[in-house]
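Contributing new complexes? Match this layout with zinc ion.
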Amino acid sequence: MAIKTDIDSPQFVARISELHTSLGIAPGYERSSGLPLQHEPTVLADAGQDMYGRDQRLTPEALSAWQQMRDAAAAEGVELCLVSAFRSVDYQAALIRKKIESGRSLDDVLRVNAAPGFSEHHTGRAIDIASPEDAPLQETFENTRAFKWLQLNAGHFGFVMTYPRGHLHAISYEPWHWCFQLDQ
Ligand SMILES: [Zn+2]
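Output block (do not edit by hand):
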């Protein structure tokens, strides 16, 4: 399945700015967060269902790399579970709005969710990975065999951990978040 989504343009930048205003995010997020603007891809492929039975999508290149990596891990007896892949700018905005409406502070939410337009999940190249050994999206993922396998092998498949411990972006340490790099 392929869909058409936004590409980089002044309209895209204006749309992000409008979304930020509507969520109460102060101007200058790009500077204050240290995060780059992320663009939605023009083509997405069906990546099957995640561990919750939700349909997921990735760019064709990232999908192929993910499938090869998952199969290579499985061949060594290590299960890699897909938690989340492509997320649109609108999805990210709705997610943040829902958390704010449930009573959480914006600062609190923005420590775990990048502002709309700045999540690597917009690119269709980022994946959140879990292990059957642990609950998903916890720092304790770093203690699983899946994480140890990824540390040794993910680079061979073009995947890099974007938010390692001690990094300087606005987002917390995320050992489960891996992004397929285009320049490999
Ligand atoms: Zn992620």
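Reviewers usually confirm one structural detail per submission. For this one: Residues 1-6 have pLDDT under 50 and may be disordered.
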